[in-house]
Amino acid sequence: MASNAGKNPNDLSRRQLFLGGAVAGVGAVAAVAADHALNAAPMAPGAAAPLNGTVTIPFHGAHQSGIDSPPTAHATFIALDLREGIGREELQAMMRLLSDDAARLAQGVNPLADTEPELSLVPARLTITFGFGPRLVDRAGTDRAPRSWLRPLPAFKVDRLEQAWSDGDLLLQVSSDDPLTVAHATRMLLKDARRFATVRWTQKGFRRAHGSEATGTTMRNLFGQIDGTTNPKLGTADLESVVWIDDKSWLAGGTSMVMRRIDMNVDKWDRLDRPGRELAVGRRLDNGAPLTGTREQDEPDFNHTTTVGFPTIPEFSHIRRARSDATHERIFRRSYNYDDAPSDPSMISNTGLVFISFQADIDTQFVPIQRRLDDLDLLNEWTTPVGSAVFAIPPGCEKGGYIGETLLA
Amino acid sequence: MASNAGKNPNDLSRRQLFLGGAVAGVGAVAAVAADHALNAAPMAPGAAAPLNGTVTIPFHGAHQSGIDSPPTAHATFIALDLREGIGREELQAMMRLLSDDAARLAQGVNPLADTEPELSLVPARLTITFGFGPRLVDRAGTDRAPRSWLRPLPAFKVDRLEQAWSDGDLLLQVSSDDPLTVAHATRMLLKDARRFATVRWTQKGFRRAHGSEATGTTMRNLFGQIDGTTNPKLGTADLESVVWIDDKSWLAGGTSMVMRRIDMNVDKWDRLDRPGRELAVGRRLDNGAPLTGTREQDEPDFNHTTTVGFPTIPEFSHIRRARSDATHERIFRRSYNYDDAPSDPSMISNTGLVFISFQADIDTQFVPIQRRLDDLDLLNEWTTPVGSAVFAIPPGCEKGGYIGETLLA
């Protein structure tokens, strides 16, 4: 558990947001850019709030960034396959390079090989998170054994997995409130990674833009559902115990990541009326309250029955099936919506969720929940997992170090 | 010319931004949502600035929205092909329906058939702009003749056009600072359009996020260039004369739109050094100043020569070739970046520009500029037009009317 974890749920967790950090100490390029901003686009007199573009989240620390901070508006997820012949030495070189790029970009500083340095000056809460797939850990060739959970998830009946959206050796999660920042950072990383690896898949996700809604509003997905109410809260000991691995292994201070690409059949969902939708989820659509409550954060009462004796929150509802009596069966979700161009001209939508969860142990925390949902969850009628991947998320590193050093050094 | 056009370049043009409009007068759904927001995510005490999510741009007016207002962070462009048998009567019905949807969505009000009404409550400067392709105007079957310019552009040597990115009967430009809003509005419109038309292509673009940079900062493209310095300024008579059609036809108060999908070969661009890049454009990369000046807005001096007698801004540079001595050869650009997943696993980027220009007359304003760039523009070495489309943009409408009524009624 990180020593400086806040206990206040309004605390932005251990990673403080540094305002204005992007402009301070960036060197010549930033100085010119700041000068330019002054010349070309003066802020209104009296304007006090710093631009969100200048807000930074530290890259260095006990844990990797991009997990226990408020989700950004945009995230791009890229899985890479290692090239033939890449062993431990090359993995070290790759992770040193990528960690250095990520640390600079997160501060709003251009990486050394940046050919468009001005595009690096707007971090907008940029974080870059690295995950290791099973084959990368094998290639490291150490005796620091991989975890039992570092393998493809067990097969679920609902799965219709496509290889084009599944697995991978190295995961990059590039997350920022600014889509141009995500595009530039992604390209910088891939330019430095391409000697070592090729792109296996790319998934782009979004949530509400910065400034669209009050801070802390729970996300709605493209079914219109409020999604994430029961998530552990940022900055709490609860989140720390759900997410971080607390042992003596190379993953101490790290976590695991499950990615599921979940197609949402919005055309079929359209044919379900509002009461039907609320029964499928177990929550009201308007404010996300459980069907037995009035407010989003109310605890659902699964024993409550209707006047004719049926459970008010049906047995087949999503929230009933997702809930366990076993207190360790909890995960921390940080999902993003996707809405891609349909490949079939008869379709008007290609929509879904890049489901992301972090948990200390996939086998004991994620899998039991997913098994219950696989057995019975009315939402399965409208959702189909089409991609699946599992990554070990190494701990963070200090300045001068690199992500993965506990495995590779 | 609109009667209430401001002459101050800092004026946000004739379309005032209405703060808080999304919450006022939205009816039951919004009331519940506002209540929800109050319960679930109270704003910090003393917070004064309205959320950008509540800012609206009026749909009704002399001109369509989404043209003479500051560009939003996101825009999705969809071209539709009319189904067989769609004539004037069906076009009327379609445009009535889509105009009503667009007017409601722009106010943060859910359209009548909205099955996820809560997703409509965050307009974030949403605008929806409609364009008519040549075939739609033919299908209208009136004697209000189409313009000479309402046809595919003349062929240019640089073109490598793909049908999958070109032409179309009806264009939807869905523009907002919030990507979830764009996704929901797009789906609402396509659900109502699908009886009449099928999707031909979808192009998604982005610029800097709201709040990333000071208002009025000129966009950088993914080559890192500042792009749009010489654009007519919002809220000026200059912009009005460049953009709006001023005659007695069905397009009075309307304009024309050129869309060019321009692939940018960023891998090849990487091999060009910084001085070479600046000569190709004719501007400094750091602050966008012409090579003969020090600040972005400085006028380029095309007669200035280096000590050895060569023009300081080369003849082959982009800004030299784009500039005409004919004062009417000007256009108003409102382009967006794109960065899609590469289709070829050996590539790491699929990047470019959804070039958009509005002008009263394509033949006399756009084509001469494009011809000069086609003949000689060093940037052509790194850029390739892969899509091209032309649309007539009908004037705006008042409440109770619909876009296209001057042609279809």
Show the helix and strand layout.
The structure is a homodimer of 409-residue chains.
Chain A: H1 28-40, E1 74-82, H2 88-107, E2 127-132, H3 134-140, E3 170-176, H4 179-193, E4 197-206, H5 237-243, E5 255-264, H6 266-270, H7 274-281, H8 318-322, E6 332-333, E7 336-340, E8 350-359, H9 362-375, E9 383-393, H10 405-408
Antiparallel strand pairs in A: 1-3, 1-4, 2-3, 5-8, 5-9, 6-8, 7-8
Helix pairs in contact in A: 2-4
Descriptive report:
The structure is a homodimer of 409-residue chains. Chain A is of the alpha+beta class and 409 residues long. The first copy, chain A, contains 10 helices and 9 strands. Chain A has helices spanning 28-40, 88-107, 134-140, 179-193, 237-243, 266-270, 274-281, 318-322, 362-375, 405-408; strands at residues 74-82, 127-132, 170-176, 197-206, 255-264, 332-333, 336-340, 350-359, 383-393. In chain A, strands 5, 6, 7, 8 and 9 form a 5-stranded antiparallel beta sheet that branches. In chain A, strands 2-3-1-4 form a 4-stranded antiparallel beta sheet. Chain A is globular and about 70 Å long. Chains A and B meet through helix 1, helix 4, strand 4 and helix 6 of A and helix 1, helix 4, strand 4 and helix 6 of B.
